[in-house]
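Hi support team,

I've been running sequence recovery on a batch of backbones for a student project. Most finish fine, but this one hangs at about 90% for roughly twenty minutes before it completes. I'm not sure whether the input is malformed or the queue is just slow. I've pasted the structure tokens below so you can try to reproduce it. Let me know if you need the job ID as well.

Thanks,
M.K.
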């Protein structure tokens, strides 16, 4: 076997062994058998809430087990193909085998990180909110770029993206927007993105072509399911309705259907305008408010409440988590993990996995490579 193929095989085997240990393979297989038996018990469905929880646990565990089994089988097939190609001197087939093994290696690396997503809400969908900082058009445009970046990241990972609220900037971009990102582990991956993001570039809105610095903040909250109880006193919540803004056309809102909720004790504000009626928007806004308050509680548990407050109260110098420099050089650098890359366009097009992976690993005391270029 060629040395590079042997090395990839060893790396993948090491990753798979680590995944098995983290999952506690034998225990996981027994637990899956137990969950399958419970799901097949018709009396379970007399309790819909319990049945849904058991079904969800089974699906999640089955997916983790199948991921490992799939990688093991693909590795066996890829190594066999490489050995046959090597024996026959078929360089084209050998390169196909290498490409297959590289793909398995990437899957294994991502699976290793996903195995770290053990928080109680990590597997949930997520609300992602973007707000422009001081600076008018420049910051609004930057907020719009961030909204596009995260939407492209989500779609690249087969997540569904739904716009819940959107307030356009006066000349460009957005003042604020909230999107719902739906898919496995959406919150777990995105939670480390909360904070202030700083952009340095030659402004397209400056006739003098001067360099400008812009700020925008990102906030991420988990969608709270029925299994998580969040008590909110209705008297603590102020409700405002307003006419949703948009590009116009035949579906433009003619009534005050958009809903804004303010939780007075925490000064937490959410808004929804995606529904066609005030009732729909009110219901969704309450879900968003529960998510935001739950996220605040999670942050307190992680002793990160102060960082979260800083990010929300001062979108500017001294609070940024990541810098995106387009002039006078090309560099995106995470100021928490030191991960950096010169592929600024790739990052703005949604290539964020290196940054998210490093942040996730650092939160559980593990290390990864220091450069996204590696």
């Amino acid at each position: 076997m060629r040395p590079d193929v042997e090395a990839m095989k060893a790396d993948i085997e090491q990753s798979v062994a680590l995944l098995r240990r983290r999952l506690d393979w034998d225990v996981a297989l027994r637990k899956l058998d137990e969950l399958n038996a419970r799901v097949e018990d018709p009396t379970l469905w007399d309790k819909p809430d319990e049945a849904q929880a058991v079904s969800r646990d089974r699906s999640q565990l089955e997916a983790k087990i199948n991921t490992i089994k799939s990688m093991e089988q693909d590795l066996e097939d890829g190594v066999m193909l490489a050995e046959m190609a090597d024996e026959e001197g078929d360089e084209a087939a050998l390169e196909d085998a290498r490409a297959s093994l590289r793909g398995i290696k990437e899957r294994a690396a991502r699976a290793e990180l996903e195995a770290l997503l053990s928080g109680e809400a990590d597997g949930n969908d997520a609300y992602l909110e973007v707000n422009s900082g001081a600076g008018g058009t420049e910051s609004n445009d930057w907020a719009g770029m961030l909204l596009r970046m995260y939407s492209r990241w989500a779609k690249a990972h087969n997540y569904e993206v739904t716009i819940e609220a959107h307030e356009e900037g006066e000349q460009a971009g957005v003042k604020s927007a909230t999107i719902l990102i739906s898919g496995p582990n959406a919150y777990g991956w995105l939670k480390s993105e909360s904070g202030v993001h700083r952009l340095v570039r030659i402004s397209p809105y400056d006739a003098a072509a001067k360099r400008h610095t812009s700020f925008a903040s990102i906030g991420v909250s988990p969608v709270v399911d029925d299994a998580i109880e969040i008590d909110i006193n209705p008297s603590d919540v102020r409700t405002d309705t307003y006419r949703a803004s948009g590009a116009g056309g035949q579906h433009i809102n003619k009534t005050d259907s958009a809903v804004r909720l303010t939780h007075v004790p925490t000064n937490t504000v959410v808004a929804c305008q995606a529904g066609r009626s005030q009732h729909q928007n009110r219901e969704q806004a309450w879900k968003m408010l529960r998510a935001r308050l739950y996220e605040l509680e999670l942050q307190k548990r992680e002793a990160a409440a102060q960082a979260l407050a800083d990010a929300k109260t001062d979108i500017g110098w001294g609070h940024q988590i990541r810098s995106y420099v387009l002039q006078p050089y090309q560099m995106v650098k995470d100021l928490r993990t030191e991960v950096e890359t010169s592929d600024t366009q790739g990052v703005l097009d949604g290539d964020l996995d290196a940054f998210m992976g490093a942040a996730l690993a650092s939160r559980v005391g593990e290390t990864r490579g220091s450069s996204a270029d590696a």
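--
Follow-up from support: It reproduced on our side and the slowdown came from queue contention, not your input. The first strand starts at residue 126 and ends at 132. No action needed from you.
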